[in-house]
Design brief:
single chain; five-stranded antiparallel sheet; 39% strand
């Protein structure tokens, strides 16, 4: 009888505490079934407003603008003034990226989040002056019917620099013999999506060297050819962040002399031309336009 009473007592305790949740009891069966969020048909109407080189390729990436900014859609196609793409997703704000003429194939397996694409670097040896890498980033908001109108103005990173003329104002009929021309402290690599804060990754890097057609004497010399580099928008030259320079180098009275002029801060896609005047003791001035 004592054993039966003990069993009855335990049973009574269970009955008298109906709200108690025991470790071995599960309440999940009483939870309403989770309904996945409704996905809308999203349409992206894309316009490219800059003139592009022939046979350019476009990569369009669409990321969510929430959380980790994960990739939702990728389109790779021939670049055209107007394009359209779509997929099913939530009609929330999107971060859209347009990259033109990527030197390497881009795919969604490698670019799963915006920060991965943001860290993508391009180097001078991989860029093509006749079809340069270009990019543009836009924050997009859905309009009626889940339509997003993306107007991109992709701009190149690559900058073009040339010297139109070199005048000799050294005096005393002094010639600069066997002259060559190059850039120093060039920025040779940069992030594809960067818009400002460009600095050379290494100091002292030189461009290719251009041999001038004649000694620099009484007559103005007109070099032919372009130099290419990435932007350097530092306003103040320092040891760790030097300005990009044009260097005219040659023999003056039997000794090597280098005439340097600093290029003012310049941003992505800049085209710069310079007229240079050489002065005594290695000095030089330049007019940029």
């Amino acid at each position: 009888m004592k054993r039966k009473d003990r069993i009855f007592l335990l049973t009574s305790v269970f009955v008298l505490i109906p709200g108690t949740v025991f470790p071995f009891l599960s309440c999940e069966r009483n939870t309403p079934e989770q309904v996945p969020p409704q996905k809308d048909s999203l349409c992206f109407r894309i316009q490219l407003q800059n003139e592009l080189p022939e046979d350019s390729r476009a990569d369009i990436f669409i990321f969510s603008d929430e959380g980790i900014r994960s990739l939702e859609h990728h389109l790779s196609c021939d670049a055209a003034p107007s394009m359209e793409t779509g997929y099913r997703g939530d009609a929330t704000d999107k971060l859209a990226v347009c990259i033109i003429n990527s030197p390497f194939p881009l795919n969604e397996k490698a670019v799963t989040r915006y920060e991965i694409l943001e860290a993508m670097v391009v180097r001078l040896e991989d860029d093509n002056p006749s079809a340069p890498v270009m990019s543009s980033v836009k924050l997009l908001v859905a309009e009626e019917g889940g339509v997003y109108n993306a107007i991109f103005k992709p701009t190149p990173l690559l900058c073009r620099i040339r010297v139109n003329s070199i005048n000799n104002n050294i005096g005393s009929y002094t010639r600069v013999e066997d002259p060559v021309l190059y850039l120093q402290n060039i920025n040779s690599s940069t992030e594809v999506l960067r818009s400002e804060g460009f600095r050379p990754q290494e100091t002292g890097l030189k461009s290719s060297v251009l041999t001038l057609p004649a000694d620099i004497g009484a007559w103005t010399v007109h070099p032919e050819g372009w130099f290419y580099c990435y932007p350097n928008d530092s306003r103040e030259s320092s040891v760790g962040s030097p300005s990009t320079e044009i260097v005219v180098e040659g023999h003056v009275k039997g000794k090597i002399q280098r005439f340097r002029v600093k290029i003012p801060a310049f941003g992505r896609g800049s085209t710069i031309a310079a007229d240079i005047d050489l002065g005594p003791d290695g000095t030089a001035d330049a007019s940029f336009f």
